[in-house]
Amino acid sequence: MKLNRPVSWFLIAFGVWSWIVWTTFVKNLWKDASGLAFDDGSPTAYFWVHLTLAITSFLLGTAIGALGLRSLRVLKREAAAGTPVEPQRSDTAAV
Length: 95
Description:
mainly alpha; 66% helix
């Protein structure tokens, strides 16, 4: 499957957005004074659940952004060569 430029840029934007939003969330979680994230200085279950969500979102945002970036690089090579770049095929048969 080959992605077009708008989809590639959307994936990159999603990855960047994910990092901005979740970085802000983790900073706010760390500074939480309401007692939800920390109870007498110890992290609560709320803290661990939301930290896990943030880490998962960082990983997914990075993977999605990398797919968009990789697609843009393929499109750039294709434009420079003037011919479509063939996708790499594996030796296994399609199911």
